[in-house]
Structures
1.
Amino acid sequence: MAEKGKLIGIGVGPGDTELLTLKAAKVLKTVPVVFSPKSAKEKESIALSIVRPILEERKDYKRLMLVEPIFPMIEDKDELEKIWNSAAEMIAQYLDSGRDVAFITLGDTSVFSTYSYVQKRLIDRYEIETIPGITSFTACAAARNKALVEQNQILTVVPKIDDRLEQILEYSDSIVLMKASRNTSDLEAKIEEKDRKKEIYSVQNCTRENEKMIEGFSNEKPYLTTTIIKFEDD
Ligand SMILES: C[S@@+](CC[C@H](N)C(=O)[O-])C[C@H]1O[C@@H](n2cnc3c(N)ncnc32)[C@H](O)[C@@H]1O
């Protein structure tokens, strides 16, 4: 029986191919199977667009198995369970045939990443290596040329504003609002009204060709929009 392959989770960074780690690029130059989830059939995966220049340089590019499972952006937990289970089983089939599989994911592997859902389903059955990537919000701070937190400041990363907003606004020194397209203007107004001195900026498509830095909240919110709130208490 063939020895089992290894699953390699790769964080591909926020957008610029040059922000891939050397380790990620090394794996992508030789791995026989690349899994690149996308949110809809007709959409190109952003993670794939980031690594495409590396893959296309491969002499064996035509033989590379590129698998693009659909991970729709839905909130129905049962439906999501089914999708993640079937993606994990699909990966398991390649691993059982002795092939290594790279699973690419935008930004870092450990921050709101589709990779984590397959990783936890396969961890007890296969060898897994996870290669971290530059996360979007540190790239946004770099684009601003400003630290996110210093000394004993507290950073809070928020995927969706909910009823913990008041506490977050009270106790954080910096707040990263990811998936900013989910924010409502009411909640944004509440943040603006908070009686603490603050700087608010939003970055769209950070490190990509169409990167845009916006002062305050952004009215139009493409999927790759992150807002950073930095309190400047005296
Ligand atoms: C599903 S999360 C993935 C986060 C990713 N794993 C990371 O480490 O950044 C998607 C959210 O990440 C943020 N994001 C990812 N890439 C970005 C970019 N290039 N510019 C701005 N925000 C980005 C946006 O808030 C987006 O809605």
2.
Amino acid sequence: MTDTTTEAPTTVDETTGGGAGSGAGTRTPADRVRERSESIAIFAAVFAAIGVLTALFAVGLAVRAVQRADSIENPPAVEAAGTTGPELTLTEFKITPNEISVPADSIITIVNDGTVAHDVSVDGITSDRVDAGGSTILDLTGVEPGTYDMICTVTGHKDSGMTGTITVT
Ligand SMILES: [Cu+2]
């Protein structure tokens, strides 16, 4: 009649819990199951903690990578111009940059980021008039080294601020 309770005497065994395999003889299967599930829980907690730390570390690395990418990206405005050639951006009513230095015989890319048509003229050489959103080129081949005014020739635009200085080196 008392068969089912024979495994139950889980008395003071747990006080011996520290010994690694020493007093195992008095442990019941129920104790072992409980000890094992406790150690599994501890392992799970440790792994969870490691996971959180790893995630935080990864986030930190990612943030630093982004910051470094930013700081790398800002200076290479020059490099970007170097790979694609000098470029001027036109808006109402600015030429950006409004001071630029280019090697002799440069072909400058003109980008119209504004909302109306613009052009750029340097030393009597005038680009095509380019619609908003479009682009064209200004071919300075043959222009002698020196510093020149650059302007937009659309009526009123020069007086509204579409001027700049270009130095051919
Ligand atoms: Cu213009």
3.
Amino acid sequence: MDEEIIDKLTEIVGKDYITMDDADLVAYATDVLPGGFKKPDYVLMPENVYQISEILKFANKKKIPVIPRGGGTSELGGCMAWEGGIILELRRMNKIKKIDADNLMAIVEPGVICQQLNKEAKKYDLVFPPTVPTESVATIGGMVASNSSGLRSAKYGATTDYVLALEVVLADGRMVRIGKAVYKTSSGYDLVHLFVGSEGTLGIITEITIKLKPIPKYFATAYGLFDNIEDCARAVNEIIKSGITPAGLEIIDLPSQKAVNQVAKKSRGKLSEVSFPEAEGLLLFEIDGHDPDQVKRDKQALQAIAKKHGCKDIIWAENDEERERMWLARKSVLVVLVQKQPTIAIGDTILPPSMMPDIIRFMQNAGKKYDMDVYIVAHSADGNVHYMIPYAETEEELGRVNALENEILNKVIEWGGSISGEHGIGHHRMRFMKSEHGESLELMRAIKQLFDPNNILCPSTIFPE
Ligand SMILES: Cc1cc2nc3c(=O)[nH]c(=O)nc-3n(C[C@H](O)[C@H](O)[C@H](O)COP(=O)(O)OP(=O)(O)OC[C@H]3O[C@@H](n4cnc5c(N)ncnc54)[C@H](O)[C@@H]3O)c2cc1C
């Protein structure tokens, strides 16, 4: 270990906020990527933007990799030190600097946890809508860097739709403010949204100005039961075309429902209260709004469309507790699968919504071909279909799951879709970047070179060799 490096880093953050202890390095050697493990050399816990600037100036000079880390819930090895170096643990930077209720905005540090922000915003009847199932761990910095979205994206969009301005520290330590606390601007290049989804490869996000929304007051939430998943997908298409914009429109396949029900039965926590009704195709939908009559009208219209497409039963939540249980069941799908088998290949493919029946069928058939269980859920209004494929850690099974994943992702690219609607690329999916982006990958490389010529920020992520 180089004493000069240790002395300098210790001088910047203070001796209590640097660690090289083996136990700590092991704790930071992985995120949620199955089987991923690579120890960093140092873990630093900076307190403010000035310390981050000093760290980067020094790391850039010495060409030491720096990997920002929020909640560490990336499933793709995005916050792992693949080439060693520094993990920049940002959770000490967790201040909500301002809630501007008049303008529906908030200014936060990157380590603020999504749920923490929503708790504070609720005091003003406001919400940051792009929640993720990991909302009690995921940070706003990590969500911006990954352009996260999910359960409510049908109506409320992705994180990118809420980011107005950023403070970032560039690879050479320069602190830069980009964007403005205004709802739109036509002034110059849109650097803010270049950083959204950049997965830590262009700079460290140290402050975020985001939009908030008023919390809706009325909800109608239901399970729609279908005889097959294709009918479910067709109903979704017509719902979108009808002009109704549900806040949630989630497809859950039968194997996923069964997995949740099995684990819920044995669980002692909140999960023990949930159960899916079990149908070949299940649609969880939610309408929300500020006008009870509008919610009622949308509810009736949506029910009629679902019925037209073969929905045989609709089970409406009678109260808030039931509504929360329905959502908890949905949020638990991956959670229960991981408990059964920690090694799981996870995908979040996206195609135009009308192609959902085709890609779901393709995934199911590919699963049969490789003799692997494929679990499917979808944020269906976006056409964002997730697969989860548990596998044993044997060479033979790893080979099969890789071949199966290649087949699915190559098909998505061939059909004009994208391999990631929300989770990002990280390390695990670098290999598909060339086939998805072709020539434009070179433009991305040029941008990376401009921002980070020494490639110290999150090396071995996004860009294949
Ligand atoms: C069970 C489960 C379910 C999930 N479901 C969803 C889902 O529905 N939708 C979804 O979008 N994601 C989902 N995810 C993925 C993940 O939880 C989200 O992307 C989350 O928003 C990441 O936040 P984080 O703070 O954990 O980021 P991290 O995992 O810490 O970091 C993610 C990436 O951002 C970079 N980064 C972090 N902070 C900064 C910063 N301040 N500046 C620059 N770069 C930074 C990291 O280097 C890394 O590349 C799921 C994960 C799990 C485990």
